[in-house]
Design brief:
Elements (H helix, E strand, L loop, with lengths): L2 H12 L5 H8 L3 H13 L7 H4 L6 E4 L3 E8 L11 E8 L1 H11 L4 E8 L2 H10 L8 E4 L6 E6 L5 E7 L8 H5 L2 H4 L4 E5 L4 H13 L4 E4 L18 E5 H8 L6 H14 L3 E6 L2 E7 L4 E4 L13 H14 L4 H15 L6
Helix pairs in contact: 2-3, 5-12, 10-11, 12-13
Length: 348
Amino acid sequence: MNKNEKRVLEIIKEDPYISQKEIGEKLNLTRSTIATIISSMTQKNIIKGRAYVLNENQGDIFVIGGMNLDRKFILNDNLVMYTSNPATSETFVGGVGRNIGENLGRLGHKVSLVSIAGFDHVYDFIKNNTGPYVDFSNVKQVENYSTGTYSAVLDSSGEMVLAIADMSIYDKMDLDFIQSYNSILKKARLIVIDLNLPKETVSYLLEFCRINDIPLIVIPVSGPKINRLPKNIQGVSFLVVNQDESEAFFETTVKTEEDFNNLADMWVKAGAAEVVITRGKNSSIYKNKDGIKKNFHPPITDDVVDVTGAGDSYSSGLIHGILEGYNFDEAIELAMTNSYYTIQSKKQ
């Protein structure tokens, strides 16, 4: 053990339930530095990393991002343009931020959603379905905008032929919007954001979390929205991203396994403390700023019902593992397990 690890160990021996913040105050080190030391000690099997991580007691987990009403229309026959097409339909609550918030709430965490909505029945539907698991007191309603909706039209074989997204309301989550939450966000135990947020808001939150020493997890949402991340992502504690989003961000194309592995190096060089890059049923890769790099192979099933929500459940399992003090191997195992069962479920 190095000098700092020995100092941290002595403090933990005296009080196994001490928080990382309190350890940092005793040693005059930042909480992020303490988290790195504890992660290293966990990897060395010096400590198991459970009790004191669980006892942060700093406040809520804040999830900042999108919440939508998702509609799925399944055509009875081939799509015919410019006329009415018979179909069956289903309605779900959705949105990346909301999805992750509900997952974490169901897993027993105290979660507060920071988002925006209109004064409409869509918001009422989302709140009524999600409210048992997530605190909605920090959702702002605005006039003259509709709550986010996403409608997909699928052919009889399940392939998407058309999708319509009404997400313009998220443009209102600008600097004035997010700065109005400064006082409560400073007390956050953890902040999770998705990239439905405007670019200026994302940049602000990276700097805000870095200055206030708050762990920040970023979920990109999609390839087209990855450009809302600044090129310098110092302040990101953990990035959960897929191959397509990574290729779009770095304006490159993966042709070989070496190319894929290099993406993790590029994300850490850009400023992420930890990153995991997924690519569906193929192996994912993890890397952290200390140079540790590992590949993970997800469990495979032939009983795939619907892949909708698999990425969000993966992220939620990973965040749950982090909150519970698991090392990255265990946290990613939880992520893959969560995703594995999601794709086999009819209820997304």
